[in-house]
Every structure is written in C-alpha cells, then in structure tokens.
Structure to design on (158 residues):
C-alpha cells in the first residue's frame, strides 16, 4: 500500500463559476485558474499522483497546455485514474478537506464525494469530503481564496 498527499489553493474572483468536487455552487465569485480551478479535485489528483510516485499534477497536466484550458477537472481526475491503474494500483480510499469561509459547503458535500467516487470507480464509502472554515484567519478567512487538502491510499491492483 502507498499513501499520497495533495494540497492546492486558488484565488476567488468575480466572473467565474465556483466549481468544487465537480459541483457548480451558487456564489458571487469563483476560482481563478487555467482549468475550471476545482481546488478540491486538484488536491485529490495530486494525492493520487503522489501516492503512485508519479510526480505532480503539473507534470501530467501542464497549465501551459492549451488542451487543459477551462477543462473540467473531473476529466483530469478520470485521466488520473488511468495513470494510477496503468501503474498497477487501485484506489483504496480518499479523505479530503476544503478550507473555505463562504459559501457554506455542507449541503454540496454528498454530491462532491459522489462525483469523485464515480469518476474513480470506488464505492461511495471510500471517498470522504470535509469542509472547514479558518475562523476568519489567513487568505481563506479573508475570502481571498479557497484551499484544499487530500490524502489517498492506493494498493496494488488485485
Ligand atoms: Mg489547482
């Protein structure tokens, strides 16, 4: 078995949709990035790639590549599954935390976890998503951005 860890952060700006875990969440601002800037999926992808010892998200999906402009990060997650399985591994479970002052993410968490599980071909119970605020501290507390952390356990495919 191998464990991987991922972290990501994106800036909140006007004029962009807010997409977290593949769910479009009603909010006045969204995350800025080359892709859809889905900070949760980027952390999950980095955890999976890290666990398999395959480098990082930027190595496999370079932001300079026009093919990834505004791409759904669920597509990147599906490609990550191919990378992991191609290396002989299967996902055991994922735990993750989105650090976000607003909006309230609780109502959207089941849909985020379901999107991740479905894309990775895991049972829903294998994917956990949590949301936290930092009680007004730091860049997430100021509403300047959203951060996400994830860990992934992978095992040799049976
Ligand atoms: Mg990112």
């Amino acid at each position: 078995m191998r464990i991987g860890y991922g972290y990501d952060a994106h800036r909140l700006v006007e004029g962009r949709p807010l997409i977290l875990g593949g769910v479009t969440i009603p909010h006045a601002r969204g995350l800025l990035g080359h892709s859809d800037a889905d900070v949760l999926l980027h952390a999950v992808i980095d955890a999976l790639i890290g666990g398999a010892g395959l480098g990082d998200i930027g190595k496999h999906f370079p932001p300079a590549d026009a093919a990834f402009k505004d791409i759904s990060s669920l597509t990147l997650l599906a490609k990550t599954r191919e990378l992991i399985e191609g290396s002989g591994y299967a996902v055991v479970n994922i735990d993750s935390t989105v650090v976000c002052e607003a909006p309230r993410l609780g109502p959207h968490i089941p849909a985020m976890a379901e999107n991740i599980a479905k894309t990775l071909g895991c049972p829903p119970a294998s994917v956990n998503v949590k949301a936290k605020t930092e009680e007004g501290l730091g860049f997430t507390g100021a509403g300047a951005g959203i951060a996400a952390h994830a860990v992934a356990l992978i095992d040799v495919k049976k």
In short: The pocket of magnesium ion is lined by residues 8, 10, 33, 39, 42 (CB under 6 Å). Residues 98 and 148 are 4 Å apart (CA to CA).
